[in-house]
Amino acid sequence: MHPAPETTLRAAGLKVTKGRAAALAVLQQHPHSTADQLHERLSLVGAAMTLQAVYLSLQVLTDRGVLRRIEPAGGPARYEVRVDDDHHHLVCTACSAVVDVDCASGEAPCLHPVETHGFSVATAEITFWGVCPDCAARAAAQPPREEGAA
Fold it and tell me: Which domain holds residue 72?
């Protein structure tokens, strides 16, 4: 259960605006959304914002620790409200779906590098890549291609 967006914004010392509150509410329901997806979903719920306003809100919310930005290789940045723990992600190589994976150890960082080179390590970010169950089922349901077919 997530706190009300207004409560989260106030706790972060941010002004409560309709756009920020709506963006948080949408991200609570649709974690790992891209800015474009958020922009579209905001329009669908009657909280239309320009794409530039969406990007600015995402930047402010990320800078204040309200959102976490993840950047799976080869894809656009995605945003989530789960910021209070050290967790990782599974990304589907077919449809780009993203899901959370909890750390095995439960505390940050859940992995430790062999050599820190003097860095003070706070978190470990791991992305697992594979095919989600829906894409695997679709692939299994397709008839096999004939050799030599284009």
Answer: 1-84
